UniProtKB/TrEMBL annotation:
<dbReference type="InterPro" id="IPR012938">
    <property type="entry name" value="Glc/Sorbosone_DH"/>
</dbReference>
<dbReference type="InterPro" id="IPR011041">
    <property type="entry name" value="Quinoprot_gluc/sorb_DH_b-prop"/>
</dbReference>
<feature type="signal peptide">
    <location>
        <begin position="1"/>
        <end position="24"/>
    </location>
</feature>
<feature type="region of interest" description="Disordered">
    <location>
        <begin position="21"/>
        <end position="55"/>
    </location>
</feature>
<dbReference type="InterPro" id="IPR011042">
    <property type="entry name" value="6-blade_b-propeller_TolB-like"/>
</dbReference>
<keyword id="KW-0732">Signal</keyword>
<dbReference type="Pfam" id="PF07995">
    <property type="entry name" value="GSDH"/>
</dbReference>
<protein>
    <submittedName>
        <fullName>Glucose dehydrogenase</fullName>
    </submittedName>
</protein>
<feature type="compositionally biased region" description="Low complexity">
    <location>
        <begin position="21"/>
        <end position="32"/>
    </location>
</feature>
<feature type="domain" description="Glucose/Sorbosone dehydrogenase">
    <location>
        <begin position="71"/>
        <end position="338"/>
    </location>
</feature>
Amino acid sequence: MRKTLLTASAAIAAALAACGPAPAQPGQAGAPVETRPPNAPEQKPAFAGQTRGPGLSSNTIGQYQVLASGLDHPWALAFLPTGEILVTERAGRLRVLTKDGKLSPAVAGLPDVFASGQGGLLDVTLDPAYATNHLIYWSYAEADGGVNGTAVARGKLVLGAAPKLENVQVIWRQAPKMDSALHFGGRLVFARDGKLFITTGERSILPGRVQAQHLDATLGKVIRINADGSIPADNPFAKTAGAKPEIWSLGHRNIQAAALDSSGELWTVEHGARGGDELNHPEPGKNYGWPVVTYGEEYSGKPIPDSVTQKDGFEQPFYYWDPVIAPSGMAFYQANLF
């Protein structure tokens, strides 16, 4: 039996996982995987199984090999067709892990990075035609005077003893920029049609948080652009007066996890409030609630002001975690090991 498994991780490590020789056994659903008390016990899910779902057991034995160590807050990986691995360090360095396990010097040519708090060099991904054009894309926090925001750039990767980037172009910038070192989002996913999805955060501070609901701002959104930074004509708000035409969906808090499923559909996992981390299937033009409709509570333990858990016109998460797990990465696994 072939199964699809969605995994959400709380950290990214430069490690390789390989399954041992023991054959996989069918998974068994059991008691809820969460044994800790919920952060917001007074809140009730909108439907059965939306939170505290049953655990899935497996007899598969994993083996792990450390490929690199000593990295400074590694944030993302991208696998080159020639066998090397690109690794971002949040402090502002892009490294190449060679096939023989050696880390390169920092790749030259990156723009200046605002490396403070949660900001820095974030995701990296390959152009769908990387084998011929050698283009890579990366997200990062960019400073502009006393404010900052998420930006996305691309450039041609030149490998070698001193790897570098050529023809660097910034293709997208979050607007407006804010005076905050939190909630940059930053995950990059190419769709099968070649369009680029970008996830953003609402910067945590109140002036940014409310803009997750505003169509004239790209805070707290899923963004969809063409590979050169231009706007697809079929985006849901491309013809809406006053709206940012690159917006795909809105009402998000801080998405750091995104991946395509086997049918090419986008799924995201976002850092929600405490007890409100969410798994969503962002669809064009839809509103996922934050901060108006949300589960969980403030990290101070106080209620989220003027919010409810359900309201007409707002999407419910496919799943939410209570208590908090702080997910920052996800992947779909499609095989029969689990």
